Structure formats: structure tokens, C-alpha cells
Amino acid sequence: MELGETMNHNTERSGRRSQNADRLNISFEFFPPKSKDMEDGLWESIERLVPLSPNFVSVTYGAGGSTRERTHDVVARLVKETDIKPAAHLTCVGASRVEVNEVIRSYADCGVKHIVALRGDPAEGVGSRYVPHDGGYVNGADLVAGIRSLGDFEVSVSAYPEKHPESPDFAMDIEMLRQKVDAGATRAITQFFFDNDLYEGYVERVRRAGIFIPIVPGILPIHNFKQMANFAGRTGASVPQWLANRFEGLDKDPETHRLVAAAIAAEQVQDLRERGIDDFHFYTMNRANLSYAICHLLGLRPALAQVA
Length: 308
Ligand code: FAD
Description:
Elements lengths: L2 H10 L12 E6 L5 H14 L6 E4 L8 H14 L4 E6 L5 H13 L4 E5 L21 H11 L3 E6 L10 H13 L4 E6 L3 H13 L6 E5 L5 H11 L5 H7 L6 H21 L4 E5 L5 H9 L5 H5 L1
The structure holds flavin-adenine dinucleotide.
């Protein structure tokens, strides 16, 4: 059976979620593969996660626009072979408005209706000063406006529970979010975080500022604690000491690492559920196992298991 056939068959069957999961909206994020092996792994992960009926799946845009074609190829295949709604990430880095507009039009042409609009990081790397490309979109808000002017797209944007590293304070950070919403963004997906109080505090600030779009928590199941901690340092996401303690001594014990990671992510999403959160965006890292397990704990079941 073709991959696409499996997916269409599964998601056709509605009523596929257990009762307490009825109000849940989940989405999964993938990155475009660099090699044939990685490509196989990506599509296996998609095939495993799609029967959980995500609201959408998104595909990232490599730093500096380096994956322009590969992102497009994955998204176009999702449109062609599945009935899930893909969202294409897009950044402003290193490209003129004309070039970025071409990418937006190519998405419209292949039936993509949802774009995750981002400024992106400087080509020199996170931490260096961001300089917009000559004649390019200057930031996320500017890009949202451009996308909305070119078609009837749903546009999601980023949000930072611990503020973006370039924001001097929360007021400035939330002002940037407001500009993105005013330009037409209808959903924000957060940077990953591990302390739910930080997320809740951030959402309260956003609501007090009169911004009422969904602020969907970005959940990162930890596949490799060391790599995650390195990456977090560059994105402004804090890694609490209690989290480091839980992974202590597990560098060479992948099995226990996996079990601990699943338990931690499950605790985080259960706690967010108790705080009234119904929407979750999973950073899958192109691996299905942890995201699948957490969704199972949230009460989600694949279509065929429900029917049987
Ligand atoms: P913006 O929201 O435009 O701005 C971020 C910050 O920059 C602002 O908060 C502010 O501090 C400062 N800033 C921007 N404009 C101004 C201004 N005019 N004046 C003063 N300050 C300003 N990166 C990728 O390369 N590819 C991806 O696919 C990708 N996907 C992501 C998905 C999510 C959900 C998230 C949270 C991040 C993602 N990123 C991705 C990372 C993102 O590109 C970086 O965090 C980048 O540094 C900021 O992009 P942004 O869209 O958040 O920027």
C-alpha cells in the first residue's frame, strides 16, 4: 500500500480519538532530510504520526534559506500523497522580497494554505546582528504582511516564553508579537521550554497586552540531552537544573535516556492539560517514538486501533 493511501485511509475515519482527547489539537514539526536515509526516516515518522490526526504538520526552512527546495519538496509530497494539512516554514534571511514572494507563490500553486512566517537567524549564526537582505522583508511582521497580501494563507508565527534573545525586555518582545498579529498572524507557536510556569506567565502577559490568538506550546521531547542543552543556550530557552539532574549519567545509556525523556515530556504535557491547554505543537526531530508515546498518554489513538 502506498504511503499516501495509508494516510488517507486512516484519517478518513473520524471519531478516532478517545473521549477525553476530543478537544485536543496537535501538530508535528519535521525538518527536510539531507540524505536518502534521512528521507526514509522522515517518511516513516510521518507515516507513524499521521494516524493520530494532527491538525497540521509543519516543515522547517533551513538556516539562511538553505533548504528552500527540500522544504518545498516535502510539503508538496504531503499535499499530493496525504490528506493532512501541511504548513511550510519560511524565513526572510538572505533573499529579496521578489525571491521570497516566488516561494510563497510556489506554495499557493501546489495547494499549500498555511505558512509559518519567521524572520530567521543571521547567516553568520545565532548571536550575530541581524541585517535584513537588501530589498528583503525586515522581520517576521513584515513577512506576515507580505504573505497575506499574496493569497488567502493561514499564517502562524513564533513566540518566546522566555523572550527572544534579541529582545531587551518582555514589553518589546510582546510588541513584536503584536505587530505580527496586526499583520495577519492567527496563531503563535512557542519556542520550546521546560518550566510551565514560564509559559503560563508569558501567556498572561500576552493577554494583558490585548493579544488573543492561540499561543500554542512547543514541546520538545529530548532525544539527546547534551545536544538539546547546547542548542537551548543559543535560543534563549533555559534548561533547569532539575532537568539536567534527571539525565545525569545517561550519555551512554540510550534506553534509559529514552524512558526518562518520555516521562519528562509526559509530565509536562499532563501539567499543561491540567492548566487548560488543548493545543500542542511537537518538535519531533523527525523521530516518531517519543512524540507518539506522549500523544498516546494524552489519550490520542490511531484511527485503525479505534475502529478495531
Ligand atoms: P521576529 O519575530 O521578527 O523577531 C524576533 C526578535 O527580533 C524580536 O522579538 C525583537 O527582539 C527583534 N526584532 C525583530 N524586528 C525588530 C525591529 N524592527 N526592531 C527591534 N527589534 C526587532 N528558524 C529557521 O531558520 N527556520 C525555521 O523553520 C524556523 N522555525 C521556527 C519555528 C518556531 C515555532 C520558532 C519559535 C522559531 C523558529 N525558527 C526558525 C527560529 C527563528 O528564525 C529565530 O528565533 C529568529 O532569531 C527569529 O525569528 P522570528 O520570526 O521569531 O523573528
